[in-house]
Specification:
This protein has about 325 residues and is mainly alpha-helical. It is about 65% helix and about 0% strand. It is built from 13 helices and no strands. The protein starts with 15 loop residues before the first helix and ends with a helix.
Length: about 325
């Protein structure tokens, strides 16, 4: 086996599960017993980092790690146990009894005065908060839209066409300088941050790791295609108003033109995307597979649940 030369470095371990997975990839450790995942904290640092590292092999991999380990049977067995622990917890905790139509309608409701992350950053955030926020979000935004691309082969007709149209915009509509991952790298430059892919994995908190893992979990499993569409809908429908607040935060603090532009671009683009996702992606998928309605609803509620966990974590850290 030959190790790949490029990619981020393997992160520091955070417990027995992540230590076993990272040691195995490094070539000097033994994989953990899959049964150990059953007693792990499902949203904790150790399980979420171990799962993130497993998933990253399907994206850019790690420097010094053989690319063939992406499909190592023993490692996939450990990953399956980690996924089961995480997914079981989400199905227990991210519950919603409302209909899918009501859930979607609820996403469109903006409070007169909110209390979440984007509200805090708009009204009170300082540059240090915006840097902290960008560090966390870089775990996703430097590969923005990549996890969602996994669902394209699992869709057909109107749903596939709508999803592809939105993804085309996310990937810059044919222009490398407008790829949203590049726009976020430009934002990071304005904030004085390192734009290297995977640079801040060690700084990534468990709630942020869980959010990125959610996308990979839904995207990599065909059986969860409905949940991935639900996740995508939650992101696109709520993005425009939140991005407007974050653009305001960047402008108020003088973060820089690229930092402000990343969010103003999302205000405009996601206002259009929201319509396409609701009408074509969700509507088309339900026309083809109406039994996936509950899965779509689960994807939305799981996303909201994990976003709230991230918000609570960062706000508690900032407001000490």
């Amino acid at each position: 086996m030959s190790s790949q030369r490029t990619g981020p470095h393997l992160p520091q371990t955070r417990g027995a599960l992540s230590s076993g997975v990272i040691g195995f990839l490094r070539g000097d450790g033994v994989l953990p017993d899959p049964a150990a995942a059953r007693s792990a904290e499902p949203y904790g640092d150790d399980l979420q980092l171990a799962l993130y590292v497993c998933y990253e092999l399907h994206y850019r991999g790690f420097a010094g790690v053989d690319a063939d380990l992406e499909w190592d049977p023993a490692l996939l067995g450990v990953r399956a146990a980690l996924e089961d622990r995480f997914l079981t917890a989400l199905r227990r905790d991210a519950t919603e009894t409302a209909s899918l139509d009501d859930i979607l309608a609820g996403l469109l409701v903006e409070p007169v005065r909110g209390t979440g992350l984007s509200w805090f950053l708009r009204d009170e955030g300082e540059l240090r908060h915006l840097r902290d926020y960008a560090v966390q979000r870089s775990l996703y935004h430097l590969k923005e839209a990549d996890p969602h691309a996994w669902v394209l082969p699992r869709l057909s007709g109107r749903a596939k066409a709508g999803m592809a149209a939105v993804e085309y915009d996310e990937f810059g509509a044919g222009r490398a300088d407008r790829v949203h991952a590049q726009l976020f790298a430009d934002l990071m430059t304005d904030l004085g941050l390192d734009t290297t892919y995977g640079r801040y994995l060690d700084e990534g908190c468990a709630p942020m790791l869980a959010l990125v893992n959610l996308m990979s979990l839904f995207g990599l499993h065909r059986a969860l295609r409905g949940a991935l569409v639900g996740h995508f809908a939650a992101v696109e429908i709520t993005s425009s108003p939140a991005s407007r607040r974050l653009a305001g935060a960047m402008k108020r603090t003088g973060a820089g033109p690229a930092a402000e532009f990343f969010y103003t671009e999302h205000v405009e683009a996601d206002a259009v995307h929201e319509q396409v996702v609701r009408r074509d992606v969700i509507g088309g998928l339900l026309d083809d597979e109406p039994d996936l309605s509950a899965d779509i609803a689960f994807g939305i509620t799981a996303t909201s649940y994990l976003e709230d966990r991230l918000g609570d974590h960062l706000l508690a850290h900032w407001q000490v």
